[in-house]
């Protein structure tokens, strides 16, 4: 056997090991990115208004108009999340500028504690800039115990400035859609245990 024929298997082995290492790194990166996707996507959409993302407001508008809109509620859970998620009402009528509270019911059907967070948008997408939330369960992570059922609320209004947008003159229905995505359970702090030989100090 020549030296060249001996070097060829070694070269092939090194190449295969390099390919395997790269593939492993890509898989790890994709898994990490999937866990970070929901918070990053929510931040990006809130900042840019992309894809019908709603706005956040700290107070009610100054006026309530006579024009009414139908608000429909859509609820979903991502594959692999054993939660039951549904609105209390599928549709309600609201006046433009009226602060309204809608209720959802969520149940963790699993036998273990699970943490998830809801992504959200409205349709038609162009009304996202007029749909304002004052408070919402979707702003934070939700951790639910096995079998736990919880009522979650969203407080919102449609900005009266929508009436100045001629493209929305024929608008009569807005659909608010949520999808819960599972995320890793946050690490719980561990209480520090004092050393066994520690002595209490006396005055």
Describe the structure.
It contains 1 helix and 10 strands; from the N terminus they run H-E-E-E-E-E-E-E-E-E-E. The protein is α+β, with helices and mostly antiparallel strands. It has a domain of 138 residues: Ctag/Cox11 (Ctag/Cox11 (Pfam 04442), Sandwich), CATH 2.60.370. A 5-stranded mixed beta sheet has the order 1-7-9-5-3, with no helix packed on it. It has a 5-stranded mixed beta sheet with strand order 4-2-10-6-8, with helices on one face. It is extended. About 8% of the residues have low confidence.
Strands, helices and their partners?
Elements: H1 3-48, E1 55-56, E2 68-77, E3 83-87, E4 91-95, E5 100-108, E6 114-123, E7 131-136, E8 142-144, E9 149-158, E10 173-183
Parallel strand pairs: 1-7, 2-10
Antiparallel strand pairs: 2-4, 3-5, 5-9, 6-8, 6-10, 7-9
- Average pLDDT over all residues: 80
Q: What is the fold-level CATH name, i.e. the topology of the domain at 46-183? A: Ctag/Cox11 (Pfam 04442)
CATH architecture of the domain at 46-183: Sandwich
Q: Which strand order spans the largest sheet, edge to edge or round the barrel?
A: 1-7-9-5-3
Strand content: 25-35%
Spatial shape: extended
The biggest beta sheet is recorded as: 5 strands, mixed
- The CATH class designation of the domain at 46-183 is Mainly Beta
According to DSSP, the number of beta strands is 10
Distance between the termini: 85 Å
Are there runs of 5+ residues with pLDDT below 50, and where?
A: 33-37, 40-51
Supply Rg: 26 Å
Query: What is the CATH homology-level superfamily of the domain at 46-183?
Result: Ctag/Cox11
Helix content: 10-25%
Structural class: alpha+beta
* Element order: H for helix, E for strand: HEEEEEEEEEE
Tally of DSSP helical segments: 1
